[in-house]
Amino acid sequence: MRHAWTRLWWLVPSLLIAACGPSQEPVASAEVGASTRPVLYPPPAPPSGNIVDSTAFLGPVGLNDAVQTRFTTNPQYLSFSFTVAAGAQVSLEVTHLGSSMYLDTGLFIYGPKNANGSYGTTVLAQDDDAGYGQLSKVASLTLAQGGEYLAVVSTGTGAGKQFRLALGCLNSACAQDDLFTACDLDVATRIEVCDESVVETQQVTPAQALPQCTDAQDAHNAWLAECAVPSGQKAWCANGEAAFTSRMWPVCKDFYQRYYGAGPLPLAALEDNDAINEARATGHTWCKTGENSCDEFLWTFNVPSIAGTQATQLDWVVEGAFAALPELSTDPRVQFTRYPNLTYADFASRIAWAFPDLGQVLPQELGNGTEVPQVAHFYDDPLVAAGAHDFHNLYIVYFPVSHRTAVFWLIQHEY
Q1: CB under 8 Å to 388, separation ≥6 — which residues?
Q2: Residue of higher predicted confidence among 148 and 16
Q3: What is the pLDDT of residues 4-54, one digit of tens each?
Q4: What is the residue range of the signal peptide feature (predicted)?
Q5: Do the strands 65-70 and 56-60 form a parallel or antiparallel pair, or are they unpaired?
Q6: Contacts of 224 (CB under 8 A, 6+ apart)
C-alpha cells in the first residue's frame, strides 16, 4: 500500500501510537516478480488444498489479451486461468486503462494445475503496488513447466470498482506446440476465399490459383488479421509472426495442396520422441536376439489439417506417407497390397509379440488420450530364399484430432 506521509514533527507521537494497533492488511513476503511492499489480501488456503476454491473463478484469459470485470464485495478474490507452454515468460498486470480510480489490488499466481485439477496453494509470484498507483503488476515470470495456471486478483476495499487484467507473452515460447499442428480455421478460410476469387476472375483451376493466395504477403496479411488486433488474439499469436510463418502457414499451404489436387498431402517429420524411441528400442532388441527374427522401421509425421473441422481422410494420409517415404515403394521385391483397415486395438495386439510397449506409447505421445486412431494395413510376403519368405506388415496409424501419424514397417523373417 502506498501512503502519503507528512514529515511534521508533531505527528510522530500519533504515528507511534498507531504502530501499536492491529494491522489492517495481511502481510506476506514477496515472491518471484513481487513487490517488497506488503501484499494485499491473499486468498485464504481452503481445506481442499486447491486455491481456486477460495476464489470466484471467472474463466480463462488469453495470451496477449485481457479481461475486465468488477469487484462486488469486500474483501474479494477473483481468479482467471491461463495456459502456456513450458518455458513461457509472461507478464500480468492490473492496468491503469480499464481500472477504476483509487482501486487497490493484490495479484497472485498459482499452478500449474495437476492431474487432479488442483492448482495447489503455493504462490509462484505475487505483487501489491508495482503497477500504476495502487494497482498490481508482475513484470516478468518464467514458467518452466507448461500447463494451466491461475491468476487471482484481490481487493479489500474495492467493492463496486472495475479492473482490467492483462496477460502478456515476453518470449516466443508461450503458445503450446499443438496449436501449430493444424491450420487455424480463420486462416484457412482466408486462403479458400482468396482461391475461389482467383478461380472466378482468372478462369483458372483451384490448384493454379493457390500460389497467388499463399505467398509471403498472404502469410503476413493473415498474421495481421488474427494477431494485430486490440483484443481477441488467437493463442498462437503469442509466439510471434516468425513462428506462425515457419510453422502454421506451411501446414495451411500443404493441406490445400492436396485439397485442390496440386499433389499428395505433404507430411512433416516430427522431432525424435524419447518415449517412442525407448519403446521401439525394447522391441528392436527382442527382434535381434537369437536368430534375428525381425526388423522394423518407424517414422512419425505431422498431418496438414484444418483445426476444428472434419479430420483429414485416411486415404490422403496413406498417399502422403508413400510420397514422403520412397522406400515403401522402391524395392521391386516388395509389392504392398492394402488390406482392410484395423482398429487400434487390433494393431496393438498384432505387434505385441515383439513391441508391446510401442502399442501403449504411441497414443500417449502422438494422440490426445481420448481420440480414436485410424489404422491402414498393408502386407506382402515375398520369397527371399528357397522355402523362406519375409513377411512385411506396414501400418499407417493416423490420429485424427492431434493431426499426427506413425508409419510402422515390421518385417518378420522365415527360416
Answers
A1: 413, 414, 415
A2: 148
A3: 323 322 233 333 333 333 333 333 333 343 444 456 789 999 999 999 999
A4: 1-18
A5: unpaired
A6: none
Residue 347 and residue 366 in contact, taking contact as beta carbons nearer than 8 Å: no
Kindly state the helix (H) or strand (E) to which residue 123 belongs, with its residue range.
strand 123-127
Amino acid making up residue 242: A
* DSSP three-state, residue 218: helix
79, three cell numbers? 481468479
pLDDT tens across 369-381, in order?
A: 899 999 999 999 9
Q: Kindly report the pTM of this predicted structure.
A: 0.75
- On whether the CB atoms of residues 288 and 280 are closer than 8 A, the answer is no
Q: Which three cell numbers stand for residue 268?
A: 512433416
Contacts of 392 (CB under 8 A, 6+ apart): 334, 336, 378, 379, 380, 381, 382, 409, 410, 411
Q: Please tell me the distance from the alpha carbon of residue 89 to that of residue 105, in angstroms, as a whole number.
A: 23
Task: Residue 367: name the closest of 113, 181, 237, 234 by CA.
Answer: 181
The DSSP letter of residue 246 is: I
